[in-house]
Design goal:
Shape: globular
CATH superfamily of the largest domain: Response regulator
CATH architecture of the largest domain: 3-Layer(aba) Sandwich
CATH class of the largest domain: Alpha Beta
Structural class: alpha/beta
Number of domains: 2
Largest sheet: 7 strands, mixed
CATH topology of the largest domain: Rossmann fold
Radius of gyration: 20 Å
Length: 408
């Protein structure tokens, strides 16, 4: 795992091992900046461009993001933003949206819901963004939902598969990724086919973990099963001893992990150290690169992860080839990842909505524009939305970490 606070967009000299075998196939950052968000000293909007109206700084279209850019879960926020930035920079290079550049203002919340609420108020009241974009995490996004719904703020492509963002329909929330329920269903189906029926669940002790636990219980019930054990772990914590003891006592043949990579890595490392042969499976939010880097030394081999975007190294998929080209344009030391590809695709969704909303979009017109997206092929991936359907994609694939190197 990278230490907190390195330069945003910097890369280690050695690229991470990312071999995957497909089975079943308060601080704003403006686009183009490479400095990490500093916690207390916000950067200003571009010189000479004071906010004049909601969503406008001069001629720019402003999107606001709160995500972890420091702390244990920072890699998720950084990678998502790097992918989004690659597309926004390209859009601006082509002349923007109806001649207006897109600017992404990102604030660091360290995966802390209280900071997310504070950041969101700053984005709306100080930065005067048109819409919110790319929030990372269930507990953090949940914390701002009352504000989003009260003021009818568009929230585009949060990095969470939580049910609470989908049921009931949230009028201004637009999800790119499949739900955690869909991910867990796919994982449990695969485990049962592999005759692994003794399934335990490790879950983060917050809204994200509870959502995943409920999905796991429901998926297991559909097979006439129930978890042989469940154990909580605190958000961002590597203190997993009690959880390991509880789960090992149940002698599971598989463990479904609903947590970000710091806790998942610590749990997996200890389980393997103690000789468990249980198949370990993670939902996509874990962060593939972060998990593998945190484990290191080949200890991640065989661990499964559900994915909700195409394989980032498969250039035969046109949108992946475009992602790779634009990521390389941003940095000569580029590394590809599922999370940065999700950020790239999220940015594609956001700009499609902005394009359809016209030169002077309002929040209401942006919502209506996003709801007009139907059967949109962005190059090997199709997005579908509608007035009663704010779920753009239901794609889920399973991947397993291996020992090869996947180079960009």
């Amino acid at each position: 795992m990278r230490p907190a606070g390195p330069t945003l967009g910097s890369r280690p000299l050695t690229r991470p091992l990312l071999a995957l075998l497909l089975a079943g196939l308060p601080v704003p950052l403006l686009v183009g900046l490479s400095r990490p968000p500093a916690a207390e000293q916000p950067l200003s909007t571009p010189a000479g461009a004071a906010p004049t109206a909601t969503g406008q700084t001069g001629e720019a279209l402003l999107l606001g993001q709160s995500a972890p850019f420091s702390g244990p879960s920072a890699q998720l926020g950084r990678e998502f933003r790097e992918g989004a930035e690659a597309w926004f920079v390209e859009v601006n290079r082509r002349g923007g949206i109806h001649g207006r550049p897109v600017r992404l203002i990102s604030r660091d919340d360290r995966y802390d819901p209280d900071l997310t609420v504070r950041n969101t108020r700053l984005l709306l009241e100080q930065d005067r963004v048109l819409a919110l974009f790319g929030y990372v995490g269930t507990p953090t996004t949940k914390a701002v939902l009352p504000l989003v719904e009260r003021d009818r703020i568009p929230l585009v492509a949060p990095l969470t598969g939580a049910r609470l963002l989908r049921e009931p329909l949230r009028p201004t929330v637009f999800n790119l990724r499949a739900s955690y329920g869909a991910e867990v269903d796919r994982i449990v189906d695969q485990l049962v086919r592999d005759a692994r029926h003794r399934i335990a669940v490790l879950h983060q002790n917050d809204a994200f973990g509870q959502d995943g636990l409920m999905a796991a219980q429901q998926a297991l019930r559909s097979h006439g099963l129930r978890p042989v054990a469940t154990a909580p772990v605190e958000r961002n914590s590597t203190q997993v001893g009690a959880a390991v003891n509880r789960i090992l006592a149940a002698r599971p043949s598989a463990v479904l992990i609903i947590s970000a990579y710091p806790s998942s890595a610590a749990f997996s490392r200890e389980l393997l150290r103690r000789g468990s042969r249980a198949q370990l499976m993670n939902v996509s939010f874990v962060g593939t690169r972060g998990l593998q880097e945190a484990l290191g030394d080949g200890r991640a081999t065989g661990i499964g992860i559900a994915q909700v975007v195409p394989f980032p190294w498969n250039r035969r998929v046109p949108v992946v080839a475009e992602y790779q080209k634009l990521m390389r344009r941003q940095s000569p030391m580029v590394s590809f990842s599922f999370t940065s590809l999700e950020g790239f695709l999220a940015a594609r969704l956001a700009t499609e909505g902005l394009q359809r909303a016209g030169r002077n979009p309002t929040r209401q017109s942006l919502v209506q524009a996003l709801e007009s997206i139907r059967n949109l092929d962005i190059g090997g991936m199709t997005l579908n939305l509608g007035p009663k359907d704010h779920q753009a994609s239901d794609n889920v694939e399973l991947t397993f970490l291996g020992s090869q190197r996947w180079e960009p």
